[in-house]
Amino acid sequence: MTTTTTExxxxxxxxxxxxLQRQQVLLIDVREPSEYNNAHIPGALLCPLANVKELEPxxxxxxxxxxxxxxxxxxxxxxxxxxxxxxxNLKNLEGGIQRWKQAGYPVxxxxxxxxxxxxxxxxxxGSLILTGVILGFAVNPGFLFLSGFVGAGLxxxxxTGTCALGRLLxxxxxxxxxxx
Length: 180
Known about the structure:
By secondary structure, this protein is an alpha/beta fold.
């Protein structure tokens, strides 16, 4: 099986900023909702990468479509998906929203946005695994089961696509930011 990849045409943050000032541009953020809520380019629509296959751009085919994510990797994948469906006039924001923010352009997002839910899961799971290993060697080998339990939970989350720890963390008050 061969896979073809389509090189996405890049647009710089400065070019996108200019284009947004001059013309109608459909801007699509392909990150997860929690990332979008943290910070997004004003006017961007949210369409996570997993949903890009069903995306029907709500504009004419002449309107440029710019995809972006955090660093440009996921938006390149979204570009390939949409290009294979025959969508034209697509571009990928070079460096993603990170480059946009570095250039000093405005973002819209939560008033006091926490770090992304995925990063919170990584921090909590990694801390539990590390704690289990340290206590397992220093105190009692039974603590190694803590590391094994968390590791098994991560495997289950990856296989099924459901993460109990992520759902639990999403219930915390600081993970329900208000978008301004």
